[in-house]
Amino acid sequence: MPSLPVIEPRDVRHAKNAPDGGAFDEGTIAPGNYPLEDAYYDYLVRLGDDSLILGQRLSEWCGHAPGLEVDLSLANLALDLIGQATHLLNKANNDDGDELAFHRDGLDYKNCWLVEQPNGDFARTIARQLLFSTYQHLLYRELADSPDPFLSGLAAKAVKEVSYHRELAADWTIRLGDGTDESARRMAEGLDWCWRFIPELFEVDAVMEELIARQCVPDPRGFESEYKAAILGVLAEAKLGPPDDQRPILGGRRGHHSEHLGHLLAVMQHIPRTYPDAKW
């Protein structure tokens, strides 16, 4: 059996002089490099990344949905979300949202775990959409009253789009849940998969605490009860019970993600990274 290599004195010196953190401990784009103060920048990126990643996920259904009408509906949802992301990321990065969208690594993304989850079957996609669109609708409704003119202006327009997203997801949840045994089983399994990601939507960290204290953004905990009641109302109409409580999955806002995000970014960023100087 071969022995381990001998550790030379120069190796020890190199190790002592090495920094404590490696490349994966720091973001490739530091918020402090931007003119926006860090908390506001971070909030814009969180909202933008949520919309961008879910929009990319929904676009994967294009040409593969169960029917033509559904195919067009999901494509329209994706376009709405990517439009929101464009405005948010442009605001965060001096009108160059493409840099943030296509030239960051996974660790620099601030989206919640829910939106990066694979589509699975149609029922799981609808479960994910119901849980996120209900949250986003309530958030934008509150954000429309923000004293920040950019956030309030964007939310006032986006809340109309998201209202349709929420309605579409609720309608399909009811149709699948109150349909056949097979559709009800798949809908229940989709909800069970996504349920553990709900608590992250209402997590309040230091960034959120700062912006809430300045009354710049709403406290999501303020509409958490309304959110839960709305979801339970849809499930009751669908003749489905809520899944059992699960250990919450957190960390997306801090750049900790599932392996699924890496695969999504590999597809989404392939052309811009392969041809970084190309003009579209």
Keywords:
13 helices, single chain, 280 residues
Structure at a glance:
Helices cover 61% and strands 0% of the residues.
Number of helices: 13
Mean pLDDT comes to 91
Structural class: mainly alpha
* Percentage of β-strand residues: under 5%
Give the low-confidence spans.
21-35
Q: Measured on Cα atoms, how large is the radius of gyration?
A: 21 Å
- Topology as a string of helices (H) and strands (E): HHHHHHHHHHHHH
Biggest pleated-sheet summary = none
**What separation lies between the terminal Cα atoms?**
57 Å
Total strand segments: 0
**Overall geometry:** globular
Helix content class = 55-70%
Describe the fold and architecture:
The chain is an all-alpha fold and 280 residues long. It is 61% helix and 0% strand. The protein has 13 helices and no strands. It has helices spanning 9-17, 38-59, 68-92, 97-102, 113-116, 122-143, 149-177, 181-194, 198-201, 206-213, 224-237, 259-268, 270-274. Helix 2 crosses helix 10, helix 6 (122-143) runs antiparallel to helix 7 (149-177) and helix 6 (122-143) runs antiparallel to helix 11 (224-237). The longest helix is centred in the middle third of the chain and has 29 residues, at 149-177. Residues 21-35 have low confidence and may be disordered.
Summarize the SSE layout with pairings.
Elements: H1 9-17, H2 38-59, H3 68-92, H4 97-102, H5 113-116, H6 122-143, H7 149-177, H8 181-194, H9 198-201, H10 206-213, H11 224-237, H12 259-268, H13 270-274
Helix pairs in contact: 2-3, 2-10, 3-7, 6-7, 6-8, 6-11
